[in-house]
């Protein structure tokens, strides 16, 4: 059961204290508090976990601090919809809104290699009005001898250049809890010219200790990639781990499923799950066409498979695109063969705009 308290409730107020006293005395019920910081107000949500079936909704609604009561199912307690469309979806970050209506493109380097490539990439993005990017500093690799990313060594120039080109947000994968601290320390030292969305890669979707660590902090939102060999339900539960620890600023990313049936693509594209994730949860949904498709191949129509997959996601209502670009793919240290070229960026963005317009028209058609 979920109790939503009156907005901006004072934790010292009699109403709050009396309500909490009552709840804490319920037997077999654990009380878990969750704060939602909105632009205008702070909402306190109280999750009652355990023996809640016998609790009467009207009794709970009568408690002095309570505004609204929602019966929630066991699944995705914080991030789920629970037939309650009034609760807001998404969050504000760095002056940008991330929810199930918004659309942001995070184009950039799969892996940071040189400051020159980072600068060319960011300069090109800025020239095309982009405020977001992806930059990999910590790379999880299948082969232990493969390049593992420059790690914290590249953070100072990545953040400084991001500031120089007015990037509001960088999607950056972390593979260990200590990386959060490294990123935070470096951003602080640089004067916070930009900020980071902590990406959790498909190999770490069920690294529960990493999820808990990212969930314990609220400064940086999380971009959780779907696990490539687990069910959708298992991946959504992984997202709920972040929220259950206190960080509900979570974007869910579809990136294809590992399957021989997807060949010759790197993975089996799974963007038809966009509406499913939107229906089951309140998370914005991202697509990663680069890691789904994994090649620059195109059909006789000259449209690359990556662009086709992107289009499929956008016309289905995707809220974010994570996509690999590189100024010189043959020199890229990771995933060069799937990187788009910088002179393909304007066309790629135009294609997204076309598809977004189509999504909006399709949506109007079905009202
Ligand atoms: C990436 O985005 O660079 C990446 C490694 O993706 P994934 O975790 O989906 O393989
Ligand atoms: Mn990659």
Structure in words:
This protein is an alpha/beta fold. Helix content is 32%, strand content 19%. The strands form three sheets. Strands 7-8-9-10-11-12-13-14 form an eight-stranded parallel barrel, surrounded by six helices. Strands 2-3-1-4 form a four-stranded antiparallel sheet. α3 runs parallel beside α4, α4 crosses α5 and α6 packs parallel to α7. The mean pLDDT is 96. The structure holds phosphoenolpyruvate and manganese (II) ion.
Instruction: Using the alpha-carbon principal axes, give the shape.
Output: globular
Strand line-up in the sheet with most strands: 7-8-9-10-11-12-13-14
Largest sheet entry: 8 strands, parallel, barrel
- Tell me, rounded to a whole number, the average pLDDT: 96
Strand content: 15-25%
SSE order, one letter for each helix or strand: EHEEHEEEEHEHEHEHEHEHEHHEH
List how many beta strands DSSP finds: 14
Bound molecules: phosphoenolpyruvate, manganese (II) ion
Number of helices: 11
* Class inferred from helices and paired strands: alpha/beta
Oligomer: single chain
Radius of gyration: 22 Å
Helical coverage, percent range = 25-40%
**Distance from first to last alpha carbon:** 32 Å
Uncertain runs are none
What's the helix and strand layout?
Layout: E1 2-5, H1 14-24, E2 29-37, E3 42-50, H2 57-61, E4 66-70, E5 91-93, E6 96-98, E7 104-109, H3 115-127, E8 132-135, H4 155-164, E9 169-173, H5 178-190, E10 195-200, H6 208-216, E11 222-225, H7 232-244, E12 250-254, H8 274-280, E13 285-287, H9 289-293, H10 305-315, E14 320-324, H11 345-365
Parallel strand pairs: 7-8, 7-14, 8-9, 9-10, 10-11, 11-12, 12-13, 13-14
Antiparallel strand pairs: 1-3, 1-4, 2-3, 5-6
Helix pairs in contact: 3-4, 4-5, 6-7, 10-11
The structure holds phosphoenolpyruvate (PEP) and manganese (II) ion.
């Amino acid at each position: 059961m979920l109790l939503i308290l009156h907005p901006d409730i004072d934790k010292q107020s009699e109403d709050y204290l009396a309500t909490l006293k009552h709840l804490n005395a319920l037997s077999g019920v654990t009380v878990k508090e969750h704060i939602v910081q909105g632009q205008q107000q702070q909402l306190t949500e109280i999750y009652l976990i355990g023996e809640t079936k016998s609790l009467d909704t009207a009794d709970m609604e009568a408690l002095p601090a309570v505004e609204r009561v929602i019966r929630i199912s066991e699944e995705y307690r914080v991030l789920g919809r629970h037939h309650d469309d009034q609760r807001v979806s998404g969050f504000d970050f760095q002056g940008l809104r991330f929810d199930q209506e918004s659309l942001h493109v995070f184009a950039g380097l799969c892996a940071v290699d040189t400051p020159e490539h980072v600068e060319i990439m960011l300069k090109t993005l800025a020239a095309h009005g982009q405020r977001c990017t992806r930059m990999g500093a910590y790379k999880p690799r299948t082969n232990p001898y493969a390049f593992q990313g420059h790690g914290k060594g590249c953070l100072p120039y990545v953040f400084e250049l991001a500031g120089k080109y007015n990037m509001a947000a960088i999607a950056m994968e972390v593979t260990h809890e200590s990386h959060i601290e490294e990123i935070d320390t470096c951003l602080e030292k640089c004067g916070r010219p930009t900020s980071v969305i902590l990406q959790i890669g498909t190999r770490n979707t069920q690294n529960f200790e990493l999820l808990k660590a990212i969930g314990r902090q609220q400064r940086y939102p999380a971009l959780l990639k779907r696990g490539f060999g687990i069910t959708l339900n298992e991946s959504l539960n992984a997202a709920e781990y972040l929220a259950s620890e206190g960080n509900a600023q979570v974007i869910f990313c579809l990136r294809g499923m590992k399957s021989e049936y997807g060949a010759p693509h790197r993975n089996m594209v799974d963007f038809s799950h966009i509406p499913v994730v939107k229906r089951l949860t309140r998370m914005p949904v991202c697509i990663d066409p680069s890691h789904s498709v994994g090649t620059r191949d195109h059909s006789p129509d000259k449209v690359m498979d990556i662009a086709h997959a992107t289009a499929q996601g956008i016309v289905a209502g995707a809220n974010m695109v994570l996509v690999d670009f590189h100024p010189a793919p043959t020199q890229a240290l990771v995933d060069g063969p799937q990187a788009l070229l910088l002179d393909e960026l304007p066309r790629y963005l135009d294609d997204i705009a076309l598809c977004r317009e189509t999504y909006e028209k399709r949506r109007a058609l079905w009202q």
